[in-house]
Write a structure and sequence with these properties.
By secondary structure, the protein is mainly beta. It has two domains: 105 residues, Sandwich (Immunoglobulin-like); 167 residues, Glucose Permease (Domain IIA), CATH 2.70.70.10. Helices cover 13% and strands 44% of the residues. The strands form three sheets. Strands 10, 13, 14, 15, 16, 17, 18, 19, 20 and 21 form a ten-stranded antiparallel beta sheet that branches. The chain has an eight-stranded mixed beta sheet with strand order 1-3-6-5-4-7-8-2, with no helix packed on it. Strands 9-11-12 form a three-stranded mixed beta sheet, with no helix packed on it. The longest helix has 15 residues. The N terminus is likely disordered. The structure holds zinc ion. The site of zinc ion (ZN) has 5 residues, from loops.
Length: 281
């Protein structure tokens, strides 16, 4: 009986019949909230590569001391329920081990945010403009530099109040406009914007819809985005340290007043940057 129970426990962790040792998998938090991330740690594991899949996203875990560590996001509009997190561990001898954990995806409460845009600003939201600009940015968000360039918690890019949080259900000029995919920080035009963590500048451009835009690559599939800027103080290719000024804020593009839109992308999925400010990821 005891032996059967042990085998059952082993199979909970490991769905491969070749598996000799069950790896300890730590998922934090244990509930996957809409618009947030979960971290995945395989403790003290010898491996050549660890790849994962969750909610139709594919990602890698990276070596972190004796462990393998990865981050994956939950889409803001993900249907609540139970979903499998699948990991494939490739051993140094080429053998693979599959590990599955079923996780609960739960609802985050997103309030409504109503605001008005004058016609000259509103017309910049035209589908062809937004799609073209987003395509330019998105191909960079898909780049996964294996080096981790961030360290510890993220700083706020400006020390001011949040005027619209992540995931807010926007109503623009009286019509539903989906969820807000970043955090708006209420800063006067010309305020210095800091890099919240170390990274490389991969995009600097004046765009119509997003206004003055910078994208930082923090490595391992993690990027941050800065919209509506008035002046750039960094160039593509610059290696930026945590706290360094990268730009001045502004009111360019689709904006109802001076502010910074700060976005966070995890394997090309927008998630709440504040989770990275509050916790060490
Ligand atoms: Zn925004």
């Amino acid at each position: 009986m005891k032996r059967h129970f042990f085998i059952f426990l082993l199979c909970l962790f490991c769905s491969s019949s070749f598996c000799a040792v069950a790896a300890e998998l730590v998922v934090d938090p244990e509930i996957a909230w809409q618009g947030k991330i979960i971290t995945i740690r395989l403790v003290s594991i010898e491996a050549e590569q660890v790849s994962g899949q969750f909610l139709n996203q594919e990602f890698y875990c990276y070596r972190s001391g004796d462990d393998y560590y990865g981050v994956v996001g939950v889409p803001v509009n993900q249907k609540t329920g139970y979903y499998d997190l699948d990991l494939i561990v490739t051993r140094k001898d080429g053998q693979t081990q599959a590990i599955t954990r079923t996780l609960k995806v739960w609802a985050t409460k997103f309030p409504f945010s109503k605001f008005w845009l004058p016609p000259a600003r509103s017309k910049l939201r035209a589908k062809e403009i937004v799609e073209d600009e987003w395509a330019q940015i998105e191909k960079l968000l898909l780049v996964e530099d294996k080096t981790k360039n961030w360290d510890g918690r993220f700083l706020m890019p400006a020390q001011k109040r949040i005027s619209q949080g992540f995931g807010h259900r926007q109503i623009i000029n009286g019509k539903r406009n989906g969820n807000h995919r970043g955090v708006d920080i209420a800063v006067l035009s010309g305020t210095e914007i800091m890099a919240p963590n170390g990274g490389k500048v991969v995009f600097v451009k004046k765009l119509k819809a997003f206004g003055g835009t910078i994208v930082l690559d923090h490595g391992q599939g993690i990027h941050t985005l800065y919209f509506h800027l008035s002046k750039f103080m960094a160039e593509v290719g610059d290696e930026i340290k945590k706290g360094e000024t990268i730009a001045l804020s502004g009111n360019s593009g689709v904006s109802s007043g001076a502010h910074l839109h700060w976005g966070m992308s995890v394997h090309n999925l927008r998630v709440d940057p504040m989770q990275w400010v509050r916790n060490e990821i």
